[in-house]
Amino acid sequence: MPCKLPSSCNTVKPDLPTYLKSRCNIVDAALREFLPTAKTRPATIHDAMRYSVFAGGKRLRPILCMEAAEACGGKYEAALRPSAAVECIHTYSLIHDDLPCMDDDDLRRGQPTSHVKYGEGIAVLAGDALLTIAFEILADVKMSSRGRYNVADLVKELAVTAGSRHLVGGQVLDLEGEGEDVTLTPTELKYIHLSKTAALLTTSLRLGAMCANATPRKLEALTDFGTNLGLAFQIIDDILDVTQSSENLGKSAGKDAATDKSTYPALFGLEKSRAEAAKLTEKAHLALNPLGRKAKRLREIADYLLDRDY
Amino acid sequence: MPCKLPSSCNTVKPDLPTYLKSRCNIVDAALREFLPTAKTRPATIHDAMRYSVFAGGKRLRPILCMEAAEACGGKYEAALRPSAAVECIHTYSLIHDDLPCMDDDDLRRGQPTSHVKYGEGIAVLAGDALLTIAFEILADVKMSSRGRYNVADLVKELAVTAGSRHLVGGQVLDLEGEGEDVTLTPTELKYIHLSKTAALLTTSLRLGAMCANATPRKLEALTDFGTNLGLAFQIIDDILDVTQSSENLGKSAGKDAATDKSTYPALFGLEKSRAEAAKLTEKAHLALNPLGRKAKRLREIADYLLDRDY
Predict the structure, then answer these.
(1) At what angle do helices B199-211 and B216-243 cross, to 10 degrees?
(2) Three-state DSSP class for residue B192
(3) Which of A40, A101, A113, A145 is best to mutate for the B interface (most B CBs within 10 A)?
(4) What pLDDT shows up at residue A23?
(5) C-alpha dist (Å) from residue B157 to A29, A154, A185, B135
(6) How far does A86 lie from chain B, in Å, by closest CA?
(7) Is the Cβ of B175 closer than 8 Å to some Cβ of chain A?
(8) Nearest Cα to Cα of residue A115 among A100, A132, A137, A93
(9) Which stretches in chain A have pLDDT values below 70?
(10) 8 A C-beta contact, residue A126 and residue A96
(11) Confidence (pLDDT) at A7
(12) What own/partner pairs with CB < 8 Å and gap ≥ 24 does A266-269 have?
């Protein structure tokens, strides 16, 4: 299935959709190359891995990764492997989050989720395999021996973010925060959003920057940008769960309210949530100042994410 | 829970149990250091990770890893991080294999399995977190810049072995091979054993050897040793499932027969299976020749594993 991208967008420069589409194609080609073919033995697992990876994601994380490399004066090609790696991590986390023992979702990106199509056992294993292959893909990155960072730095960055203190940890808190007798405080909610969403977006940017041998100052700027962008992204995601149809989102809408999940819209209402997302996007813009004009696309992407309707 | 080790063993040199016990303690200390404390936020996941890691495993893989480093002329301390990493991978694979959607086991190492104690969601996430932290631990290995191998080589080695073509792939075939209407051929069974068991034992040895800057010849010898040792180990495991009690094994015995699983004893009977395990152990011994006297402990471990009763 091709990447899901807008045919038009009012608030951003007209060539952004075309640019995103071309980047999407680059990421898809890289993933096709790095993932074993669906015929590689055992065929079931490779088929299941590819099914979820090529289910039509926005490829936001890989695009941010490549764009960060360019914003730091490097070439996007240098960040191809980390881009594919973060998409594998993202896809694994969706497969496991959708399992019956977690969020129990049947629909993702408009398609049956992995456990619906392949059964729970294979879905768990497909997630495991995608998590694992992310590190295999990363291990083969070619880094300059005279640069500031090496492959070990990339592996550490991704492992810490994907691990128990961030991505996995966020899902734990999310699981524990469900149910009508639990109401999270705004601080707890922000912590979950930072762990589950902002951390991987930020790491995507940082990995790209590291592949471009970014200065510590630029790396810090992208970290700040990613944190604010990630928080805004999650708030918008929760708003869309309330305001949009399952058909438009490609996943089960209205789920948060049905499961009494604590979200920004549930805690503060839609209007305040929208204002908060806008404020965070503004902070994200400010964070990019040290990168100057080279960060033009990152600014456009931040605006595009704020205004999206899916 | 302390490591489960024999108080005596007839066929090996008398100091092996003492040696294994001391190595076990070293591995446990390393794991205690590398894993976040049970109080680290979110506490549930770190508690669950430690619960399974410290449930009293034999620490065979880390011991092989450290021993391979010494057999190649290095120090075991150089292989501490890879040792902890392979144990995290092993523990994650047990947690996920025991899930209701896989082998559905309630007992492991004499304790309730992770999903019985923490629920399925947390068990999936504890496995995910242990798989991930293995790479975090590996990323911090200090390798000599003048050696043959670097951290990227270690990460690649572990990721390939843990991934869809080996460890995960073996579990897929194992899942697909269950049920009364499926009988695997000996070739298929060997393929599963190579993927599920021999691959991680071999990689444990190879990682240790790489940390000792092993020559390609020694690395090849250990690969050959690990393959034969791993096959023998799995056959013995399947024999013990038939001949021993759940109490002695610390996990559900008789499970293979109950689920019509294809195993060596099921295909060839106990006697032929024992003979095959002995033959493979002999091949493992031969493979160690290029390592000379430094491989004494590895030879002892191979004999000990052949004669174990749990």
Answers:
(1) 150
(2) helix
(3) A101
(4) 96
(5) 25, 16, 44, 11
(6) 13
(7) yes
(8) A100
(9) 1-14, 179-181, 246, 248-249, 251, 253, 310
(10) no
(11) 46
(12) A266/A238, A267/A184, A267/A186, A267/A189, A268/A186
Amino acid at A8: S
Average pLDDT over residues B14-37: 94
pLDDT at B94: 97
* Contact yes or no for A4/A21 (Cβ under 8 A): no
Tell if the CB–CB gap between A168 and B45 is shorter than 8 Å: yes
The interface residues of chain A toward chain B in range 119-158, judged by CB-CB distance below 8 A, are 119-122, 124-125, 127-129, 131-133, 135-136, 138-141, 150-153, 155-156, 158
pLDDT score of B170 more than 90: yes
- Say if A16 is an interface residue toward chain B (CB within 8 Å): no
Look-up of token digits 């700027």: A221
* Residues in chain A closer than 8 A to B162 (CB atoms): 132
**Nearest beta carbon to residue B129 from set A120, A140, A163:** A163
Q: Which residues contact A99 (CB under 8 A, 6 or more apart)?
A: A115, A120, A123, A124, B121, B124
Per-residue pLDDT reduced to its tens digit, B122-157? 999 999 999 999 999 999 999 998 999 999 999 999
The strand pair at B107-108 and B111-112 is best described as antiparallel
Q: How far apart (Å, rounded) are the C-alpha atoms in residues A167 and A117? A: 25
Q: Identity (one letter) of the amino acid at B15?
A: D
| Residue A118, token pair as written in the block | 């392949």
Length of chain A equals: 310
Complete domains list, chain A, with CATH: 16-307 (1.10.600.10)
Tell me if chain A has a CB within 8 Å of the CB of B272: no
Rounded to two decimals, the ipTM of the complex is: 0.93
Instruction: Please state whether the peptide bond connecting residue A265 to the residue before it is cis, i.e. omega within 30 degrees of 0.
Output: no
Determine contact, residues B164/B195, Cβ cutoff 8 Å. no
Cα B220 vs. chain centroid, distance in angstroms? 19
Residue A198: name the closest of A164, A171, A173, A223 by CA.
A223
Helix axes B296-307, B216-243, angle to 10 degrees: 20
Rounded (to 5) percent helix, strand, coil in chain A: 70, 0, 30
DSSP code of B181?
Answer: T
CB atoms under 10 Å from CB of A269, counted, come to 11
Query: What are A112's strand-pairing partners?
Result: A107
Q: What is the mean pLDDT of residues B27-51?
A: 96
Residue A111, φ and ψ in degrees, nearest 5: -120, 160
Residue A151 in tokens: 């492959």
Does A41 contact B122 at a Cβ distance shorter than 8 Å?
no
Whether chain B has a CB inside 8 Å of the CB on A46: the answer is yes
Contact B129 A164 (CB under 8 A): yes
Distance (Å, rounded) from C-alpha B185 to C-alpha B200?
23
H runs (alpha helix) in A72-166: 80-97, 114-118, 120-139, 151-162
